[in-house]
Amino acid sequence: MIWQLDLAILTLVVVAAIGAITIKDLLGSAILFGAYSFMMCLLWSIMGAVDVAFTEASVGAGVSTIFFVAAVFRTTRRTKD
Amino acid sequence: MRIFGIIVVILTGALLIYAMGDFPSWADPASPAHNHVSPRYIEKSLEQTSVPNLVTAVLADYRGYDTMFETAVIFAAGVVCFFLLRIPRKDEPTVRRYRHTLTGITISVKETREIPPVLEEFERIDTLWTPPDLIIKTCCRILVPFLQLFGLYVIAHGHHSPGGGFQGGVILGASMILLAISHDLRTAIGRMSERVHAILCSVGVFIFAGTGALCLVLGLNFLDYGALARILHVDPVTARSHGILIVEIGVGLAVMTAMIWIYNNISSKGKYDEGL
Q1: What number is the ipTM of this complex?
Q2: CA B9 to CA B150: how far, in whole Å?
Q3: Could you tell me the pTM of the whole model?
């Protein structure tokens, strides 16, 4: 495990997570959530949990992002608050 | 109220970080999680199930109940989305848009229930329509069969490499969703109708639970695949491997159709008329 890589990915996870809950644009939030899932997938594979990483990549970064985008498409794009 | 919420969140986070200090360090062989059943799985799973991938053996065989009810949860998610979002076709007049493919003229047809005869030169378009992009359409259409082949590979090769029913099913479902996004929803529904989704989703759960019940009928415990040896004419260890494959196929079917079902319901607001 390379600690520099680990630190960079962990920082990106935190940045993506904070961005996903603070951004006003819901589509951007969905995309950031996908980026968060993908970074988590990289973390899982660094830790050796390849099956979990595969599930995270397909379900978290793939299909759930599509569901969010579809839901955003059918609602208003920006949050009210 | 907002300040109060932030304080609660920060306090909870601080408590969690404080409690993390008591955790065993990463990959510590003396940690409790690695001492109870893990050594048994690591040492015995290959000779008991003849499945090289430990995770698949644990998920589908040793912890078969968990996986069965996870599949049931996915099925329930699909059914709940259907019941919450699906709107049966009503008699209210709707406006449908048709585009003349040769001249690019769009006409809107206000109609009650009769759908006008589909002509060769007219194609049905969505209200929020964007011009068709040949590159995107062709690329996605070429990509879809390879995606589906990869999904089948992931399901079938779950014994030896990472993967299995869940991941393969999601990839298969994503290929159909890609078709719906790159073309339109009606194309995807034309390939695989709503009835097929509902039937295949329940068939997937039924294959899983039915395999378990078959083991029960053959005289062993529920989901004890060794009982299948009498039907498959192999030794009980190989029968476990085959039983895992059968179960994974069921999971894959249920997950694939549940994903497409949820997507169709969300993206078309339950009307199955105009999609993303």
Answers
A1: 0.87
A2: 42
A3: 0.86
